[in-house]
Design brief:
By secondary structure, the protein is mostly helical. It contains six helices and no strands.
C-alpha cells in the first residue's frame, strides 16, 4: 500500500517541479540583470501555476482513490486494496502540496547561487524519518502520513521565512 500510494503522491511533486524547472534559468537571468521587479513577477506567476497544477493533480488523485473505495465491485476492490484509505491519501496529498509550494521559493534562492535552506532540508529529513519510525510503528499508514504532514507544517513556513529574509537583503544590496 505504501509503495502504490507513494507513487501517486510523487506525481504531485513531479508535476509541480515540471512547471518550475523551465523557469529557474529565467530567475537566474533576472538576478544577473538585477531586475528584481521582473524576477518577482515571474516568481509569483510560476508559483501560482505550480501550486494550481499540483492542487489539480492532487484533487484528481484523491477523487480517484475515493471513487475506487466507493465503488463496490471485485475489480475496484482489488485496486483500492493497493492504496491506503482516502483519509491517509488526503494527508499525504496535503503534505505534498505544501512541499510543492516551497519549490519556487527554493528556486528563487538558488537563482542567487546560494543554498540557504540546506540545513532546513536536513532538518526536514530528520523529522520525517523520526516521525515515520515513531508514528508508523504504532499507527501504520496514518501515522506515517501525519508525520510527513507534520514535518512539512514545521519546515515549509521556515523555508518561506528564510526566503523572505534573504529576498529583503538582496533587494537592499
Amino acid at each position: 500500500q505504501m509503495g502504490m500510494t507513494w507513487s501517486l503522491i510523487g506525481v504531485v511533486g513531479t508535476i509541480g517541479g515540471a512547471w518550475l524547472a523551465p523557469r529557474v534559468p529565467q530567475f537566474a537571468m533576472a538576478v544577473a540583470q538585477k531586475n528584481y521587479k521582473q524576477l518577482d513577477i515571474l516568481f509569483w506567476r510560476v508559483t501560482r501555476a505550480t501550486v494550481t497544477a499540483a492542487c489539480f493533480v492532487a484533487l484528481v488523485i484523491y477523487l480517484s482513490v475515493l471513487g475506487l473505495n466507493l465503488i463496490d465491485s471485485p475489480l475496484s476492490n482489488r485496486f483500492s486494496a493497493r492504496f491506503f484509505s482516502p483519509t491517509v491519501v488526503a494527508l499525504f496529498l496535503v503534505a505534498q502540496i505544501l512541499l510543492v509550494i516551497s519549490l519556487p521559493f527554493s528556486g528563487y534562492m538558488r537563482a542567487h547561487k546560494q543554498e540557504p535552506i540546506m540545513f532546513l532540508s536536513i532538518i526536514a529529513a530528520l523529522i520525517i524519518g523520526s516521525f515515520t519510525v515513531l508514528l508508523g510503528k504504532d499507527y501504520a499508514g496514518i501515522g506515517v502520513a501525519l508525520g510527513y504532514l507534520g514535518a512539512h507544517l514545521i519546515v515549509i513556513p521556515l523555508v518561506i521565512y528564510v526566503w523572505y529574509q534573504r529576498r529583503r537583503a538582496w533587494m537592499i544590496s
